[in-house]
């Protein structure tokens, strides 16, 4: 089980590879994870936004976790596995976390309940129930996708819940982290790739970054420089990653990322499940240029 002090470094949210008929492609998944595990990543996030959680069934999540464990066993390696378990229904979320505990994951990522626009009190109760299950919870704030923004006070109160070990902050800037940093708080992982360096400077303990699927070692080095207090080197290296991040998020994540992984032969197909769609031809040209460099 993950502890607060483990929320450090680079956690990579992984894609869920599909064949062209949208079926789960576990062969590609094993190959892809094998390549990622060559890097010194702190952990993997399965069924996050990048894993297309809205279209992946819970049975498929179980298959993905089992496949990840078998890849790690074959390599004699064990790093933490976090799975996205949040939904907009508290009881379903609790059931998923119970199952997550049974299949032996290390923590769950619980997104702010989306769509129904609950009150801040309702959201707090959602996180209390999620944390009561006993599997460590990382709260995930991403208003651009959930349609609801947590107040700073609600975030503080969520972080105080026993069993909530930290926050993934994809709130769209540094304001939330700045408001929290003067207080004694649990670890915050940056989940907003373009702000990675700024958030490290403000005390983020690492990142959960889709773009760390590409140039993984460079993202790890940005973290390491910052961790040593060398923010100048961290910034120089991070600046070289900005064009990649911008391209990866020019259209909805994870379509550009899957296209790049497929072009490199790491996964067989760039298929995303509808209503997500493939990247436009214009972006393909730019991504291809990036690959050439
Ligand atoms: O899958 C994730 O977790 C992430 N999702 C965010 C998004 O797609 O909006 C971005 C972040 O890099 C990680």
From TrEMBL:
Pathway field of the UniProt record reads:
Amino-acid biosynthesis; L-lysine biosynthesis via DAP pathway; (S)-tetrahydrodipicolinate from L-aspartate: step 3/4
Organism, per UniProt? Paenibacillus spongiae
Recorded hits in PANTHER family, A to Z, give: 4-HYDROXY-2-OXOGLUTARATE ALDOLASE, MITOCHONDRIAL, DIHYDRODIPICOLINATE SYNTHASE
- This chain's protein is named 4-hydroxy-tetrahydrodipicolinate synthase
Localization = Cytoplasm
Keyword vocabulary terms for this entry: Amino-acid biosynthesis, Cytoplasm, Diaminopimelate biosynthesis, Lyase, Lysine biosynthesis, Schiff base
Q: Which family does it belong to?
A: Belongs to the DapA family.
Enzyme class comes to lyase
State the active site. Answer: 140, 168
């Amino acid at each position: 089980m993950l502890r607060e002090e483990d929320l450090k470094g680079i956690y990579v949210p992984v894609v869920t590879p599909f064949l062209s008929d949208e079926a789960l492609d576990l062969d590609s998944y094993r190959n892809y994870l094998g390549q990622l595990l060559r890097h010194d990543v702190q952990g993997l996030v399965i069924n996050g936004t990048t894993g297309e959680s809205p279209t992946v069934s819970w049975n498929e999540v179980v298959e993905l976790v089992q496949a990840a464990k078998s890849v790690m066993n074959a390599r004699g390696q064990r790093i933490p596995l976090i799975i996205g378990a949040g939904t907009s229904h508290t009881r379903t979320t609790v059931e998923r976390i119970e199952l997550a505990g049974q299949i032996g994951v290390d923590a769950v990522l619980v997104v702010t309940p989306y769509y129904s626009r609950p009150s801040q009190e309702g959201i707090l109760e959602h996180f209390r129930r999620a944390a009561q299950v006993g599997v460590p919870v990382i709260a995930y704030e991403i208003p651009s996708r959930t349609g609801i923004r947590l107040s700073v006070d609600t975030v503080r109160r969520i972080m105080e819940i026993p069993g909530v070990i930290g926050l993934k902050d994809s709130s769209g800037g540094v304001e939330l982290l700045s408001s929290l940093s003067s207080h004694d708080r649990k670890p915050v992982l940056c989940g907003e790739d373009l702000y990675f360096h700024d958030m490290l400077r403000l005390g983020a303990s690492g990142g959960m970054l889709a773009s760390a699927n590409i140039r993984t070692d460079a993202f790890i080095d940005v973290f390491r420089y910052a961790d040593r207090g060398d923010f100048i080197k961290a910034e120089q290296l991070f600046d070289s990653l900005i064009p990649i991040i911008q391209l990866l998020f020019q259209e909805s994540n994870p379509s550009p990322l899957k296209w790049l992984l497929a072009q490199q032969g790491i996964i067989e197909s760039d298929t995303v499940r509808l209503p997500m769609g493939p990247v436009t031809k214009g972006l393909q040209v730019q991504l291809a240029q990036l690959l050439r460099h």
